[in-house]
Amino acid sequence: MIDLNASAQAMSDLDEGAINEVVDKVMAKADADAAQELIKAFQQGMTKVGERFDSGEYFIGDLIFAGEILQAAMDKLKPALSGDALEKRAKIVLATVEGDLHDIGKNIFRTMAEASGFEVFDLGIDVPVKIIVDKVKEVNPEIVGLSGVLTLALDSMRETVDALKAEGLRNDLKVIIGGVPVNENVCQRVGADDFSTNAADGVKICQRWVG
């Protein structure tokens, strides 16, 4: 039997050794149900990681490390999962907007969002408006996440939202922006639905949107 509470705690504690050990146990049996339950436990652990970051106990480096541990664990577990074992709650198209090359915050958000059950289409960095719009047309997501650290990225965010409106894609689409320079005023100016300056809060916003 796998101790799911201990597994959640291991993720919260960033105990890579314990996580690898329990993942190996599940993979040895190739048990899809156990793999799914373990992922849920890791999701709970990542929620605690976010809480520890909010409280000041963890720092940005800890979030990055947590994301790396989780991604490695999920990559190992995927072969044991049946085709529909990872039920996706909603789709997110994610990008660091044109003119910005920063991706640490975006990558942390992606990992935490995937751990929460979202299907994330990460387009990378310095992504032109047209690429984002085309991807939205292709996959019909519920949410678009736009990331940027540089102040010039804010113009790209606004241009992206304007383009989504022009293409008639904005009505049923939620847009969240993230990065150091964003705030309530920036959010309104860009035309986004909400903003976040850390990945954990951003994922919580997205969870509220999809119920």
TrEMBL record:
Mind telling me what this protein is named? Cobalamin B12-binding domain protein
SMART domains from the UniProt entry:
B12-binding_2
- Any single GO BP term: homocysteine metabolic process
Q: Which domain of life is it from?
A: Bacteria
Domain named B12-binding: residues = 89-211
A Pfam family of the record is B12-binding
GO CC terms, sorted? cytosol
What InterPro entries does the record point to? Cbl-bd_cap, Cobalamin-bd, Cobalamin-bd_sf, Met_Synthase/Corrinoid, Meth_synthase_dom
**What residue ranges are annotated as transmembrane?**
none
Q: Molecular function terms in GO for this entry?
A: cobalamin binding; metal ion binding; methionine synthase activity
Start and end residues of each B12-binding N-terminal domain:
1-89
Q: Which UniProt keywords apply?
A: Cobalt, Metal-binding
The keyword Metal-binding appears for this protein: yes
